[in-house]
Specification:
A hairpin with a 4-residue loop joins strand 7 and strand 8. By secondary structure, the protein is mainly beta. The chain is built from 2 helices and 9 strands, in the order αββββββββαβ. Helices cover about 15% and strands about 55% of the residues. The radius of gyration is 17 Å and the shape is elongated. The longest helix is centred in the first third of the chain and has 19 residues.
Length: about 170
């Protein structure tokens, strides 16, 4: 599992820099960076997400939350423009850990909408199917409970965010 996560991280970084090096002739009308407060998403349950516009229709993000971290990429159906509700699809990953709760890694495919205002405010939400891997049961000495871990399950995950572009 560690190899899969390391591989996913490497693919994400390579994709990020590959897209960065592509032709910049088509101008993006939005500011390139934003910082968002979010519930769920890549910043675990409550956190902050740094987003970077890396193309006319693509945004990469890294999130840090109270109990987790994550990363992802969103591809918008049309060119990113201000004052338009923009639908997107993406691929996101988050890891959540607390002492008394299970260590969980989640990959999810969000389908979402984001509104980018001309005043540098963005508001968005998404929801989509997820694949969750429960690695440890948290704090418990019960051998029956511990014997069930690790296990995986399909579920639903999402995100609500409000941010400022700069």
């Amino acid at each position: 599992m560690i190899k899969l996560n390391a591989f996913s991280f490497v693919v994400f970084i390579i994709s990020f820099f590959t897209v960065q090096s592509q032709d910049k002739s088509a101008e993006v009308l939005l500011k390139r960076n934003s910082l968002s407060g979010n519930i769920l998403g890549t910043g675990s349950y409550v956190g902050l997400t740094y987003e970077r516009v890396i193309g006319n229709r693509t945004i990469a993000e890294i999130g840090l939350g109270l109990i987790g971290v994550g990363a992802g990429v969103s591809v918008y159906i049309r060119k990113l423009e201000p004052n338009i509700l923009s639908p997107y699809i993406g691929l996101k990953f988050t890891t959540r850990a607390m002492v008394d709760l299970p260590l969980v890694r989640t990959f999810y495919l969000p389908l979402g909408l984001t509104f980018f205002s001309k005043h540098n405010l963005n508001i968005g939400f998404d929801i989509g199917p997820s694949y969750d891997t429960y690695l440890t049961p948290g704090y418990t000495n019960d051998p029956i409970v511990r014997a069930r871990y690790p296990f995986s399950a399909f579920g639903v995950f999402g995100n609500v965010k409000v941010g400022i572009a700069f």
